[in-house]
Amino acid sequence: MAVREKDFSGHDGSGGTAVAPSFDPARTPTGESAGAEGAGSLEAQLARAARQAWPHLPVADADAAVEAGMLAAVTEEPAHAQHTPSGGAVDGGAAQVVAAEVGAAAAAIQRQGLPPTATTPVDWSGFGTVIPVVAGSPGAGASVLAALLADVLQLGNLRVLLVDPADPPRSGLATAARSDGPWLVSPHPQVHIRFSWRAQALLARLETSLSVVAPGMVPPPKFWRPPLPLDATVVDLGHDPWRVTAHPLAGAGTWLRRGTPQPRPVLVVRPSRPSLLHAEQVLARLDRWVSSAAVSAPVQLVVMGAKRWPRGVAGAAGRRVNTLLSDAVFVPHDRDLAASGITAAVTPARLREAVTPMLRRWGVLPGTARKGPRASTRGHS
Questions:
Q1: How far is 227 from 245, CA to CA, in rounded Å?
Q2: In terms of residue numbers, what domain contains 202?
Q3: What is the widest separation between alpha-carbon atoms in the chain?
């Protein structure tokens, strides 16, 4: 049965303290240089703690663990425990404990999803058509577009998964469901995927009790796949495109991996010269990965908040963005949506109408709603 717009309110789915070391330059007798040395020494300790669980922890994950430890040192958070989740002892202080926790979580999760080689194709068949939505610039509107695509597809009576791998405080889809569902998948004791309903689209969001999400803490795609048939999977990659496009072989970037069927990444920009300049650099970071057959290049440019290019803006496009200009899709500005962000309510019809032809052109959305009975997903949560 087709989803009615009034259904978009969603379903409720119920059915002894160690002190961190100080490195404040103002407290050191020799001023700035001593403070810098103190910070560097602490960072080295945190990096060692992060790699206790796995000596080969990738640099990006170790850096994130150091960031978490530095944050704990500054805020003087108490140690959560005297041992890391992997069982290794931590030598002193809340900062080392936190760094070790982040490193252990990243190691445990990433080692479950590392591909054999960079060019090993991914079997995406269980996800239907995968549509990663990549932000070309900060605040481009990737989360809004991801919700639009999911709404269009489910209103077309398709079975849709909407994936949100963002750090929870940075999520653009935090209120996309009426309430959080009770169904959890836990690749690690401190990292979870929570499934909720956005009408009859399934929304999967990252949750963690840790203060910093390392790239390797984002579960590989296999953990996001529900035990339900899917026609399409829309992935919101707008929260950190700079990191994602620098290393798309682990973490959230794995949704760009080549495979069968081939993902259809979408690049989202604002109708401004700075946004196009940012987007060119995002594509430049992806170039080597695309040329090595590791990831799929964006196949579509979507411009959020405009009906056409403002005068003089399109001319700012670099050579990479320029190849996507001819069939760019424009999504008009909506004042209410801009003020509220994505909520459990259905996205505005005129915005959905702007992206519908693109989905039909790809063959993802039939020309007319699919006929015949469809298994209801209302009872799942």
A1: 29
A2: 120-361
A3: 78
Q: What pLDDT, in 10s, does the model give residues 356-375?
A: 999 999 999 987 544 433 43
Considering the entire predicted model, what is its pTM?
A: 0.83
Is the same domain home to 170 and 49?
A: no
In the listed set 42, 76, 110, which residue is the last one of a domain according to the structure?
A: 110
Distances (CA, A) of 4 to 68, 151, 355: 44, 11, 19
pLDDT tens for 308-337 read: 999 999 999 999 999 999 999 999 999 999
Model confidence band, residue 77 (pLDDT cutoffs 50, 70, 90) = very low
Q: Are residues 158 and 238 in the same domain?
A: yes
Distance CA 255, CA 257 (A): 6
What's at 265, amino acid-wise? P
Verify that 204 and 77 share a domain, yes or no.
Answer: no
Same domain, 51 and 169: no
Check if the beta carbon of residue 331 is closer than 8 Å to that of residue 347. no
Residue 308, both tokens: 């056409």
- Asked if 198 and 329 sit in the same domain, the reply is yes
* Mean pLDDT score across all residues of the chain: 85
Residue 54 lies in a domain: yes
The reply to whether 102 and 236 lie within a common domain is no
Buried b (16+ CB within 10 A) or exposed e, 124-163: beebbbbbbbbbbbeebbbbbbbbbbbbbbbbbbbbbbbb
The count of structural domains within the chain is 2
pLDDT of 33 strictly over 50? no
| CA–CA distance, 219 with 205 (Å, rounded to integer) | 11
pLDDT at 2: 53
- Residue 193 has what pLDDT? 98
Q: How far is CA 209 from CA 2, 13, 28, 82, in A?
A: 37, 22, 34, 17
